[in-house]
Model the fold of this input.
Amino acid sequence: MPSSRRPDRRWAALALLALAACTRPTPPLPTAPAGDPLATLRARMAGMQTLRARFTATAQTQAGERTAAGVLITARPAALRLRLIAPFGLPVLDYVRRAGAAWLWLPDPGADAAAPPGLLLLDRLAVDEAAPPDACQAFLVRETLTLYRCELPGGARRILHIDSQTATLRAAEDLTADTPSLRRDYDDYRLVDGVPLPHRIRLVGAGPIHLEIVVDRWEVNPALPADAFVPAAGAVRVGMQPAALDPQ
Amino acid sequence: MPSPTSSSPAAERARRRRRGAAVATALVVLAGPAAAAPCATSERCLRALAAAHGDTRTLDARFTQTKHVSLLDEPLVSSGRFRFRAPDHVRLDVETPQPATILIAGPAVHIPSLPEGEQRALAAGPMAALFSELGALMAGNLATPPADLRVAAQGSADGIAVTLTPTTADSRRMFQTMVLRFAGTPPTIRALRLDDGLGDHLEVELHEVRRNVELPDAVFAPP
Done:
């Protein structure tokens, strides 16, 4: 009967309205000032003295999948700490980089320190992707995307994909003569204290590893503990690159 | 003539003393009898737990774990289910926010979805040793603790707290101390606190704890 079905439709409409109200679409990012998108991105990064990210990392290999919760903190100019925690609450890894040196702590002192390079690729998060020490040249400029080629020490090259409209890093790829390329995709940008930051990061091409990081929360310029970058007791000194993690 | 309500200073002091005594008595009555500690010495507490453990065939509990990380202002919270079957089978399921399972059968530790090579590395590491002891420890089997752990127990009105302290550097790397809290009759695991090698700590609250429920083999079998 039509009269008896009308209330159902009304409830359905109300439910849809309620759903629509609950679903908050990510607001569009503001348009960046005209000019070089990479310069705009670097200027924005320069305003962030410290950063903290709380995230979940999922590594997929042909043999299986691993998930860990993680914390990443950074401080200018080059201090970084990454701690991974297993779902059962025990620490998996603690990595500190500062002043040209890096330390790695693993729960098992006998473990091969080169074991978790996939996760250590987090070292290259958006924090310093766009600030390689050498000059970058734009080689493809489109209305929506600008590609830069950066020369890295040791002869490697980094290709940066930067959104021309919002001056946000969308992808970075390192190319070397003797290792497969490693691409990092930065996605799901949201404004955090007025700064666009990626909430989903994927690393593809690190051998058989595919790593996805979903950031629950970024904090811009948080106050960090005084010992934030002091290596843990028992940490071993390691190389700066994930491919060279043998204890020194 | 003295007023009917007035009295000598000595009589006034005596009345105050009586009033004070009455108030104190009332407070004691209101507070009820002080709960007694279930055991007076570490040895007696461990014996009480061992006696309770003798009757424990299985444990099934829900848990909420809160990880306090020094680098974060807010803790990481997750929840799941813990199941133990004597003598040495444990299944730990983290259900939220990220599902994960660990299966323990004696010295064998199995994490479904972990690559085979990492399973072998895990089985040889100190984390496996800790997990393989966990079920028995949580069931109260502390009469013969692992050789590299020092055990001390203390009774209080809240129950029995057992502190495990590693005696080797390798174990201390995993955790500095682990405190297990038992309560009820018989004393049953209620909470666990683990201070890890990085200075962070993990608090696990167990609830809906059930003893000696049926836990079939399939619960502890790898998928």
Summary: The helical segments of chain B are 9-31, 42-54, 116-124, 126-138, 169-174, 217-220.
